[in-house]
Automatic annotation (TrEMBL):
Region ranges (Disordered): 504-523
Originating species: Leucobacter edaphi
Boundaries of every Helicase ATP-binding domain copy: 288-452
Source organism superkingdom: Bacteria
Protein name in UniProt: Probable DNA 3'-5' helicase RecG
Single Gene Ontology BP annotation: DNA repair
Keywords: ATP-binding, DNA damage, DNA repair, DNA-binding, Helicase, Hydrolase, Nucleotide-binding
SMART domains linked: DEXDc, HELICc
Domain Helicase C-terminal, residue spans: 512-655
Pfam family, one: DEAD
Gene Ontology molecular-function annotations: ATP binding; DNA binding; DNA helicase activity; hydrolase activity
Amino acid sequence: MTTATLETPLDGVVGARTAKPLAKAFGVTTVGELLHHIPRRYSRRGELTPLAGLPPGEHITVVAQVLDVRERTMQRRRGSLLEARITDGTGTLSLTFFNQAWRARDLVAGRRGIFAGKVSEYRGQLQLQHPEYELFENREDAPGADQLDEAAAKAWSETPVPIYPATAQVPSWTVQRTVELALDALGPVDDPIPAEILRSEGIMPLGRALELVHRPRTDADWRGARESLRFREAFELQLALLDRRRRAAGEPSTPRPIESAPLARFDAALPFELTGDQRAAGAAIAAELAQPHPMHRLLQGEVGSGKTLVALRAMLQVAGSGGQSALLAPTEVLAAQHFRSVVEALGPDLASEMNPVLLTGRMPAAERKRALLALASGTSRIAIGTHALISDNVTFFDLGFIVVDEQHRFGVDQREALRRKGTQPHVLAMTATPIPRTVALTAFGDLEVTTIRELPPGRQGIETFAVPEIEMPRRAARVWERAAEELVKGRQIYVVCPAIAPGEAETPSGEEPGDAGDAAGEQRPIANVAETVAELRARPEYAGARIEGLHGALPGPEKDRIMTEFAAGEIGMLVATTVIEVGVNVPNASTMIVRDADRFGISQLHQLRGRVGRGEHAGLCLLMTRAEAGSVARERIDAIAATSDGFALAEVDLELRREGDILGTAQSGGRSTLKLLRVAEHGELIQHARDVAGALLEADPELVAAPGLAELLARERAAGHIDNLAKS
Ligand code: ADP
Ligand code: MG
């Protein structure tokens, strides 16, 4: 066999029949990709056990001799059953194999071997179904053969057995066998990481790490191998992110000077003082906009912390030298609201000068045409819209600055498409979903991060209560009484439901819904907008209030109308899905009721809560749930009720969420980006790897002395892998 490299196509090494199902199940097509399919865990075959008195339910390993073998066709199911009985002199045990009649060739009466599996009981007889086994060479006549067998058996029983992520079509042991074939065929492996770094970090060369992670002889083998591979992952990722940041920062861009007449006028008319954090963030952004290189910055801060205001001031700086800005919002509702509040914040004079335009997918043709013209000619300095802004027929006169609101809702490809409408415009991504530092480093490692922690003064705060409906029916009833009291005081109320109508879920954020099965007593369907509207309208205590439903399936103009009427106070209760989640700003709304709150993620609930308590009235957030006490779903809800600090919640979220969810679903297609690295656990490692990568790039920016890494980065750039990661 010719020796393979990590790039060798897998089918050339293991054959198409084996390779194809692996490609389908795990997306692995080369030897390297297969060898990066890392075992999930390792099991032991276990202590050698005498057959007498076997414990059912346990994993055991026995050394025994085959007594007899029978094959029969099954009556109930199609297929054959091979049954072998083995004995070690203290007892007997039967081995069963379905549809594996060929094993009769190995398992012949008289052969000795070692057998491992889980003991089960069938009609009073102990058995192992589909056990692993290894038969000894037939050397009964050789002196001392038994001792030899025992020693081999002991070694075999103590070797860690890799257990792979598997599917029904490709079980772990198939992966294991294919991996062994690939390892056997593999020649010397070129290690992209320079030897000095391997030495200083004390990590194994790549070839050795791959061998030991798949074929360890001891636990120390695989532990060391995994640590080494994990460091590589963190290091290569951080290197790619830092490289990307460095390249982006080196691109030329139009400087937008700090002195700006429109901004000065805006500041002079501002009815309040900027908070300290707003000033600091504003100064950092202003300085960067004035540079001849594009800004790439993430602005994170609690809902209502005043990020949009910071962004608007930056737009006015850009407008000062004639440049245009575009604000990209994830939903029509949000784009329309941004538009209204920008127009209002600018005041009549500045608004007519800046001529902001709204651009969404569902505008009347004439209006749309006017907007497009204003942007192409440069008479409009500010564009606000949904992804309609990205469409081909939108051109800008001089697009200098892009603001992406709720950045995690967009893919990098979308951000890039918008960026291409200008020449290296500055980019400010905003998020109200606080991100723990390690996640920020991993997901947004190519961006500078600015955080606003301070809220504008005078906010009344929000009280949050968990309402476990099953344990506390009285408290649940009280929710609706409280809502009535708020209505009487002239306040408005949001009621959020996970679904639109019975059986119709809506999770527009792309966020994983909460642990679905946890809701106890599935007799009532998941709370939905349609039924909740009907229920609430039927209640006498709400007779005087207008109650409307809002969800993503409504036509755009209808959504806008309802939102506008709610903002104007004409609607008392808005029953909605999470379309109202981000950014919606109605200061008179005091109460947020979330039904079946366990269906939402922590950050989503925190966002929802941020919709109330935005004005002079204290906010109240009631999280109704049927999830059982002690479930993860309840832990999430209790965590939110216990703290209003979004950053603390982000950490809790990180702990409670299953790994992988953190970086979103973006990774699911194609190569899964993170394998051994868990942002929740490996914060220190990530930081350290970033330092090492930074030092290397500092000393050798083009990686001349590390051609393997240079090539790796070039490949990643071409394939856009880190883009995928940053998408989350
Ligand atoms: P975010 O975008 O972070 O959710 P916004 O910029 O929309 O926050 O601000 C929320 C509300 O607070 C807006 O009505 C805004 O005008 C107001 N606001 C912003 N900054 C301040 C401040 N420094 N003092 C008082 N109110 C502020
Ligand atoms: Mg906002």
